[in-house]
């Protein structure tokens, strides 16, 4: 059982609501929202007001991936906007434990994303407090990049870390370069939340693209 999360980074930004409704009809399970601030990553997307405006266009859960500095300043706004999952970057959080508490206190599920060069062991102290580990399989900032193969091993390590902590409820998400060619390896390694931007929104037949990931 996998959860397919199309990333609207590769959608037509002039028609976001229609694009979300289109992938919902075509089998998506969750909508992945990439917040970028032009500081943590060299790209800028959208923030809480846009997410709030999009909330009523779909019943699917919203999965916010915060590629921003000071992610703690966005948490309350995201909760009020109706977001279900919030993932912060380990590299952006000086006080990761506190941010994770803040996300849960706001009534959302909390995850931590790891850049390709950040080791899984950096999460060993907080493994018991996580609802999700997001393994980045590209360097964050842009859609359509090539999958980094060593991310597969990090998915296995993340799975082992959660098992060791007795945290069987947490899920592993993978983001970047996930497509029909790379998907089997990430599923075999233990990822169940699959983010796909270009592989879904760039496909001529989006229903077939989602089905092939599943
Ligand atoms: C990249 C974003 C991804 C992006 C993935 O920084 O976090 O969610 O949309 O795009 P694809 O699937 O095209 O690699
Ligand atoms: Zn993302």
UniProtKB/TrEMBL annotation:
Signal peptide: none annotated. Its EC number is 5.1.3.1. One of its GO terms (cellular component) is cytoplasm. A divalent metal cation binds at residues 32, 34, 65, 175. It is an enzyme of class 5 (isomerase). One of its GO terms (biological process) is pentose catabolic process. It comes from the Bacteria. The active site is at 34 (proton acceptor), 175 (proton donor). Keywords: Carbohydrate metabolism, Cobalt, Isomerase, Manganese, Metal-binding, Zinc. Its cofactor is Mn(2+); Zn(2+); a divalent metal cation; Co(2+). Pathway: Carbohydrate degradation. GO terms for molecular function: D-ribulose-phosphate 3-epimerase activity; metal ion binding. Gene3D superfamilies: Aldolase class I. It catalyses: D-ribulose 5-phosphate = D-xylulose 5-phosphate. Belongs to the ribulose-phosphate 3-epimerase family. PANTHER family: RIBULOSE-5-PHOSPHATE-3-EPIMERASE (PTHR11749). Catalyzes the reversible epimerization of D-ribulose 5-phosphate to D-xylulose 5-phosphate. This is Ribulose-phosphate 3-epimerase. It comes from Megasphaera elsdenii DSM 20460. The lineage of its organism: Bacteria, Bacillati, Bacillota, Negativicutes, Veillonellales. The gene is rpe.
